[in-house]
Amino acid sequence: MTTDTARPNPERFLTLLREQQRGRLKVYLGFAPGVGKTYEMLQEGHRLRKQNVDVVIGVVETHGRADTAALINDLEQVPRRKLEYHGVVLEEMDLDAMLHRRPTVALVDELAHTNAPGGRHAKRYQDVETLLQAGISVITTMNVQHLESLYDIVERFAGVKVKERVPDYVLAQAHQVVNVDLPAEDLQERLRAGKVYPPERAERALANFFTEPNLNQLREIALEQVAHVLDRRRHERDGAAQANTSARVMVCLSSRSPNALRLLRKGARLADRLGAPWFAVYVQTPGESTEKTDAATQRRVADSLALAQQLDGVPLTFKGADFPSAVAAFVTEYGITHLVMGRPQRPWYRRWLGPSLVDRLLHTVRGVDVVIVDTTT
């Protein structure tokens, strides 16, 4: 079922369609497969079609679910593009055909999907961005665990490394986000009834990812995410400032960061909740100059800064004589209020040799909240 309080009026979306030049994005967000996101998306497609809106299916994955498949029949579909990969023929949304057909609204399932090699883009969300830029509005679906900034959180409680991820900015630019909710017990019952996966796969799913604690945690995250989006929209509608201009977040990176990606996701979520801009700063000391850093390390730093940009951060390299003084200089120059850094990997016996990096940093940087992130697990 769809949470009524989080569900925007379909007529409001229709009004937005008629006012826009760039396409509008609407996302049906769920906490797990099988809650009914695709079903809700197709139902909206039928509602819009009855109001004489030109709606076309770009791609829908039914996963063998009869109720979902039944909703496809009366909607126009653009034939999928066939691609051969390692001797297997795969079908993907035909982006060029969609652009040529140019409907008012495209229904595009599974936003986090990775495209088969040979297409214009590697990821489906990039296809969606192209449709939006062409003035085609898109209604899509995704599960909350595919958000890039949630990767570490989901891995920690569910033990699952989510491979297909969507940058947070994609969801942030959505004009409407609808929470498709279902009690965890009801979803487990759907699994047992074979309405989500075949029986043999359903049994494995119930024993692993679809445990009640996992589902309840994901459900809470999805509800929190939608509530945050709605709160941000409310502030925008009421004319409030879109950003907290007094807050600035800095994520400190070095070539030795054991898990820089976790730091970045933590910083991105903190900044998002504060409504503040954030900076991913590679602090380059003389010991980390290009001449003294191997190519693999340089690539790792570059990948980290690229992820920061995907998470709507500002990637920068900042040089200094040593780490604490460089951070202090950046904090002063950019008005940083929140500092995110990893827990230093320091052997216990080195405590006798003098203050730690964190101690030196806290002594140097005053009036800033410092968040220490454990990046070892």
TrEMBL record:
InterPro entries: Histidine_kinase_KdpD, P-loop_NTPase, Rossmann-like_a/b/a_fold, Sig_transdc_His_kinase_KdpD_N, UspA
GO molecular-function term, one example from the UniProt record: phosphorelay sensor kinase activity
Keyword Transferase: yes
Cellular compartments per GO CC: cytoplasm; plasma membrane
Keyword annotations: Ion channel, Ion transport, Kinase, Transferase, Transport, Two-component regulatory system
Leader sequence segment: none
Top-rank taxon, per record: Bacteria
Keyword Ion transport carried by entry: yes
Gene3D superfamilies (alphabetical): HUPs (3.40.50.620), P-loop containing nucleotide triphosphate hydrolases (3.40.50.300)
Positions of the Signal transduction histidine kinase osmosensitive K+ channel sensor N-terminal domain: 21-228
GO terms (BP aspect): monoatomic ion transmembrane transport
Domain UspA: 248-373
PANTHER family found in the cross-reference section: SENSOR PROTEIN KDPD
Protein's UniProt name: Signal transduction histidine kinase osmosensitive K+ channel sensor N-terminal domain-containing protein
Organism of provenance: Gemmata massiliana
